[in-house]
Amino acid sequence: MRPLLGLASSPPPLLLLPVFLLLLLQLLGHGSAEMSERLARKLNETMALQSVAYSRVNETGLAYNATTKFNPRGMGQLYNVTNMFIDLVQRKQAYPEGMIRLVNGTPVLADPTSEWHIILTHYGGLAGLGLAGILLAAVLPCVGLFFCCCRCAGNCGARSEPFDKKHDHCRKIMLSVILIGFATILLFGVVCAFATNEQMQEGTRDLPKAARTSLGDVKLYLGTTKRQVETLLKVNYDELELALNVILQASGKIVTEQLAESSHAVSLMNLNDIVAGLDNIRKDLKMMNDITKELRNNASHLEILVRKVRGNLLQTLTNCGTQDCKDVMHKYKISEMTVKVDFDKYLDRYFPKLPDLDVTYVLNNISHLMDDNIVMEVRKGMDQFMNIQKEIQQAVNQTIPIVSASIRRAGESLATVASNIIQLIDRLNIDIDKKYVPQLEFARRHIEQYSPYRYYLGLGISSILLTVLMCLSFGLLCGICGKRPDGYGDDCCNKGSGARFLMMAVWIIFLLTSILMIITVVHMITGVLVERAICEPLKNPSDNRMFELVDEYLQIKRVLYPKNPHADINMSYILNTCHKNETIYRVLKLQYIIDVDSLRGYIDRYDINQTIHQLEQKISLSHDYKIISEAAREKLNALAQSGLSDIKFYQYTENLRDNITNINLEQLGSKLLDLALRLPRGYDNVKEDLLKNAYDLEGYHRDIVNPMSNLSSLLSSSAIELQEHIKFNHTSMAQAIHSLVDEVDKAQIFITESGPAHVKTLAAEFGKAFIYQVNSYLNYVINNTLTKVGKCGPISNAYNATIVSGCNKILDPFNGFWASVGWCLVLFIPTIVLCVKLSALYQKSDPYPGPLVESEYLYDAYADRDNVPLAHVHDKKYVAHGRHHPVGGYPEIYNGPAIGYSDREHIADAHQSSSHHDSRYSDLAPKNWDFPNGGPPRYQPAAVAPPLSTEYERPPPYYYPGPGERN
Question: Which stretch is the leader sequence (predicted)?
Answer without folding.
Answer: 1-33
